[in-house]
Prior knowledge:
Chains A, B: Keywords: DNA-binding. The structure is a homodimer. Chain A is mainly α. The first copy, chain A, has one domain (3-123): Multidrug-efflux Transporter Regulator, Chain: A, Domain 2, CATH 1.10.1660.10. Chain A is 72% helix and 3% strand. Chain A is built from five helices and two strands; from the N terminus they run H-H-E-E-H-H-H. The first copy, chain A, is elongated, with a radius of gyration of 21 Å. The structure holds a DNA duplex.
Amino acid sequence: MKYYSISEAAALCNIPETTLRYYDKKGLLPLIERDEAGRRMFSETQMALLQTVICLKNTHMPISSIRQYMAWIVEGEATLELRLDMMRKHKQKVLQEIAMLTGYLPAIDEKIDRYLKQLEEKTT
Amino acid sequence: MKYYSISEAAALCNIPETTLRYYDKKGLLPLIERDEAGRRMFSETQMALLQTVICLKNTHMPISSIRQYMAWIVEGEATLELRLDMMRKHKQKVLQEIAMLTGYLPAIDEKIDRYLKQLEEKTT
DNA sequence: TGTTGACTTGGACCATGGTTTAACCTTTAT
DNA sequence: ATAAAGGTTAAACCATGGTCCAAGTCAACA
């Protein structure tokens, strides 16, 4: 089984090493293995979990919730419903955020169009 | 011309008064008028500008950039191109954000589906 | 007249999400 | 043996976006 060092993991995920250590400290990377020298070893499984962390972080889930989610994963089957519920709620949040951003696009376009017109008038 | 007090403005925009004062302090509400007692008076024009501030803030433009944009508005015609450029870039940012969030939806759906299946298996 | 309610201020405080620092520990290559 | 490369830690520091507090002003009403 291949293991990645923290620098390899960081490079693969395109994220600073310091951030990975910070996530570990915050409990976002449970069950992370260490070698004899105490260095973090990222297994393929860990890399997959890390991808999940990054997905949740990029979709603006707070660190504290990501920690809770990862803790539930470690707990196993008993927390399936909790995780399902959390993901469903999170999906709704993401959809709402997309809707909000999309909803503002016309207002932004309006300003762009107005400035274009005004610039045109200025030069004519 | 109708003027709104800070509490009315706050209520209309559904935003705390403290945040409005904070925005003013940060230079996001230029040209705001005051009555004899020093109280802020929001004209219809100010309310429209405030809507713009809220639009930009909700679409994640940093306070410092919003301040720059508002300062350009005050400067007038000479800054039309700068404002146009800023809005175009901002629109691209918003589109990218929408794309990123949308791009993560399948990963979230996958988790939801997986949990649903696992729960089904558990009860069968 | 006094007190109530809405407003003002500067500055302290807070939460979030990292980033930096300083001192230290292992391998490995020279 | 020693230095460079890559890793460790706790704790301090930072930026962002507010939020809260104490002390004061002002207008109106009992």
